[in-house]
Design a protein that fits this description.
Chain B: One of its GO terms (molecular function) is oxidoreductase activity, acting on the aldehyde or oxo group of donors. Chain B: Keywords: 2Fe-2S, Iron, Iron-sulfur, Metal-binding, Oxidoreductase. The complex is a heterodimer of chains A (316) and B (212). Chain A has 316 residues and is α+β, with helices and mostly antiparallel strands. Helices cover 30% and strands 18% of the residues of chain A. Chain A has 13 helices and eleven strands. In chain A, the strands form three sheets. Chain A has a five-stranded antiparallel β-sheet. A three-stranded parallel β-sheet of chain A has the order 1-3-2, with helices on one face. In chain A, helix 5 runs antiparallel to helix 9 and helix 12 (279-286) crosses helix 13 (298-315). The longest helix of chain A is centred in the last third of the chain and has 18 residues, at 298-315. Chain B folds into two domains: 41-120, Beta-grasp domain (Ubiquitin-like (UB roll), Roll), CATH 3.10.20.30; 122-212, DNA polymerase, domain 1, CATH 1.10.150.120. With 212 residues, chain B is of the alpha+beta class. The longest helix of chain B is centred in the last third of the chain and has 16 residues, at 146-161. The chains are: A alpha+beta (316), B alpha+beta (212). Chains A and B meet through strand 1, helix 2, strand 3, helix 3 and helix 5 of A and helix 1, strand 4, helix 6 and helix 7 of B. The complex binds flavin-adenine dinucleotide, iron/sulfur cluster (SF4) and FE2/S2 (inorganic) cluster (FES) (2 copies). Residues 81-84, 86-91, 101, 103 of chain B line the site of one FE2/S2 (inorganic) cluster.
Chain lengths: 316, 212
């Protein structure tokens, strides 16, 4: 690990300002992703800004009837929150399907959104990787790609975003609230927050340099059956091959957001519209533009079958 | 292992340290003093941890994980290093009452926090009920994962009592219950290379009953 200086941020504005004044600085929240990557020198910040203790660990009702989740709320506390369990069950379920009890006690809302891919070549510093070293090439294309993306991919990168939580937040139409170093605030919808890889897979979100996440806002509850179904190589403590976060209404309409297939949670209006017709139609719409490798083409069938199971569960 | 405890002096580090020197000797002593006070120009820190009830002061490199602070600085070697990447649970300790992986957190981030390690749960002759249950049920073979398993399992029972849901909890709106399925799921962050899992679960079930 490279040496770094360390400070505890005194305020949200001070945190954003400190990050903007040093392009090699990074925020640290739970540390469960950043430290992992720093040990491998995949991340090499020269300065860490500790953002714990800024009072962003609360979940509050919004005047619109939704919820504002502070950026530093731990994954365990979010999953266990009474209103989340009752009105936004898909989010609770997605959270407890991720990582382990120990990790969820540390992992934060903002850190979870910002976690980086689990592509094996991103972690292997001996191999080319456009995300880790822009312009060096993509080892996964033509390499081991079983876990990687099948839709929205590019010639530069086929990685997936590993977060379970983000898949549920996309289904719920959540929005990410931020502060920029100049003090301006904005809100970015989950549809736009994560980017597709394109030619710049190292740029993963819409955040600008130093921009700090303060909260994630959930709109008022929409009822329906909330389901999160995750398919993985072992029953617990593993990243998704495919996961589906769904909110399905009694009339069969609803929303479906898919994890494990793209650089961001994958949800399309056209696929939501097909949902009442069944899993085949909806998954065909979701993956109409799929570009698979020999090793990961099984994910196309897996999405359809997982969605079939979700629809059955919603009826049951 | 790419990581090393030797400070590497890179061009960037030299730039930073010369910037710090300029700040300290330059025309703005007030600014330099403030930077000194908030420690933000330093690669090392002085912290205080309350470990197993005892206050311990430490001078550490900022890179020191809580795990290395416990093992290498405080010589509390009960807590084990398996993977050093959050993947095995051998390093599980309790911080302010919650179980975490001590390998994925920095000691400097825990200034003032209360840490409980396996040594703090119980000692020979004065075992914690969970330690006694592990002994009784042979909940280990080589024993390397055991301190992490025991710290984790003590926390698991508290998490169920606190009604924190898990992946196998049936209803999100009802109180979580203690069952084999719940224990297995909640213990999945603790890997046992010897495969002592079935005895570990039996030990936890017994300890849960004893406390209920
Ligand atoms: C073994 C293992 C298994 C895992 N399994 C899963 C899984 O199955 N599913 C899953 O979803 N996740 C999984 N995870 C990942 C885990 O969920 C993430 O590590 C965690 O959510 C990151 O949160 P953190 O607070 O620790 O982030 P940190 O490590 O502190 O930060 C991560 C990134 O976010 C940035 N950041 C933090 N806070 C802010 C902020 N407020 N504003 C702007 N940027 C910010 C940091 O600068 C950093 O770049 C696993 C992790 C491990 C180690
Ligand atoms: S898929 Fe993306 S992350 Fe993986 S090797 Fe290619 S460029 Fe790197
Ligand atoms: S040593 Fe910390 S989880 Fe393996
Ligand atoms: S007892 Fe040997 S690793 Fe668990």
């Amino acid at each position: 690990m490279r040496a770094f200086t360390y400070e505890r941020a005194a305020s949200v504005e001070a945190a954003a300002g400190a990050a903007a004044s040093n392009p090699e600085a990074k925020f640290i929240a739970g540390g469960t992703n950043l430290l992992d990557l720093m040990k491998l020198e995949i991340e090499t910040p020269s300065h860490l800004i500790d953002v714990n203790g800024l009072g962003l660990d609360r979940i509050e009702a919004t005047p619109e009837g939704g919820l504002r989740i502070g950026a530093l709320v731990r994954n365990t506390d979010l999953a266990a929150h009474e209103t989340i369990r009752r009105d936004y069950g898909v989010l609770s379920r997605a959270l407890v399907a991720g990582a382990s009890g120990q990790l969820r006690n540390k992992a934060t809302t903002a850190g979870n959104l910002m976690q980086r891919t689990r592509c094996p070549y991103f972690y292997d510093t001996n191999q080319p990787c456009n995300k880790r070293r822009p312009g060096s090439g993509c080892s996964a294309l033509g390499g081991i790609s079983r876990q990687l993306g099948v839709v929205g991919v590019s010639d530069a990168c086929i990685a997936t975003h590993p977060s379970d939580m983000a898949v549920a937040m996309r289904a719920l139409d959540a929005a990410v609230e931020t502060v920029k170093p100049d003090g301006t605030r904005r809100s970015i919808g989950m549809a736009d927050f994560h980017r597709l890889p394109g030619d710049t897979p190292h740029i993963e979100t819409e955040l600008k340099s130093g921009e700090f996440i303060t909260a994630v806002v959930l709109p008022p509850p929409i009822g329906g059956r909330h389901i999160y179904r995750k398919v993985r190589d072992r029953a617990s403590y593993a990243f998704a091959l495919v996961s589906i976060g769904a909110v399905i209404q009694p009339d069969g309409t609803g929303r479906i957001s898919v994890g494990g297939v793209a650089h961001k949670p994958w949800r399309l209006d056209a696929a939501d519209a097909e949902l009442p017709k069944g899993a085949k139609a909806a998954s065909a719409a979701l993956l109409a533009d799929a570009r698979t490798t020999e090793q990961n083409k099984f994910k196309v069938d897996l999405v359809e079958r997982t969605l079939g199971a979700v629809i059955l569960e919603a009826r049951g | 292992m790419p990581s090393t405890n030797q400070p590497e002096i890179s061009r960037r580090d030299l730039l930073i340290s010369s910037a710090a020197t300029v700040a300290m000797t330059g025309a703005a002593p007030g600014v330099a003093a403030a930077q000194f006070a908030d420690r933000s120009m330093h690669y090392t820190s002085t912290i205080s941890l309350k470990v197993n009830g005892e206050s311990r002061d430490l001078d550490i490199d900022n890179r020191t994980t809580l795990l290395d602070a416990l093992r290498e600085h405080l010589h509390l070697t009960g807590t084990k290093k398996g993977c050093d990447h959050g993947q095995c649970g051998a390093c599980t300790v309790m911080v302010d009452g919650r179980r975490i992986n001590s390998c994925l957190t920095l000691a400097v981030m825990h200034d003032g926090d209360e840490v409980t390690t396996i040594e703090g749960l119980g000692q020979p002759g004065n075992l914690h009920p969970m330690q006694a249950a592990f002994v009784k049920h042979d909940g280990f073979q080589c024993g390397y994962c055991t301190p992490g398993q025991i710290c984790s399992s003590v926390a698991v029972l508290e998490e169920i009592r606190a009604n924190i849901p898990s992946h196998v909890t049936g209803s999100l709106t009802e109180q979580a219950t203690i069952s084999q399925a719940e224990i297995r799921e909640r213990m999945s962050g603790n890997i046992c290379r010897c495969g002592a899992y079935s005895n570990i679960v039996e030990a936890i079930v017994e300890a849960a009953g004893a406390r209920a």
